Amino acid sequence: MRQFEILTKYIPMLREDHIGEWVIDQENDGTAERPIQMPFVHYSETVQRFIEDVYTFAEQHQEMELTRYREILKENGIEGGLNDIENVDISNLNVQCVLALIMGVVRAERFCEGSIFNSFKSGTMLKCLERLDCLE
110 φ, ψ to 5°? Predict the structure, then answer.
């Protein structure tokens, strides 16, 4: 098995996948009895498995130091959060930086609902996976 196959195997699947959909509470009125649920993204099964595999890869490849993803991105001149990630020229990035971008997007979901959704819809995540495939 190739080193990044746990992630790159998703390239064809994600090209065909609907990724997910925003769920917005249309039923409740915001009263104490019927509080409005915050909007969230319901991700497809494929995306959910991909997220799990990103964490699995990071755990199995500690040498990549993906727990330091913020520092890795900064060392490569990528700062400014997700807006910067969307505008990065991925074609010249090394393996560790591409993996740090992927981890950054996945981790951002914890603080900014829809981060993963946006990176798939914009094509950034697919570009990262394709770059990994080229580097393998």
Answer: -65, -25
The sign of the torsion formed by the CA atoms of 78, 82, 123, 66 equals positive
What is the per-residue pLDDT across 31-73, written as a single tens digit (0 to 9) for each?
999 999 999 999 999 999 999 999 999 999 999 999 999 999 9
Q: How far apart are CA 8 and CA 58, in angstroms?
A: 14
Angle at 81 (CA atoms; ends 25, 135), nearest 5 degrees: 110
Given phi > 0 = left and psi -120 to 50 = alpha, else beta, which region is 112? beta
Q: Is the pTM of this model over 0.85?
A: yes
- Count Cβ atoms within 10 A of the Cβ of residue 25 and give its class: 0-12 exposed, 13-18 middle, 19 or more buried: middle
C-alpha triplet 50, 62, 44: angle, nearest 5°: 10
Does residue 22 sit in helix, strand or coil?
Answer: strand
3-class secondary structure per residue, 40-82: EEEECHHHHHHHHHHHHHHHHCHHHCHHHHHHHHHHCCCCCHH
* Closest-CA residue to 119 (of 135, 104, 100, 97): 104
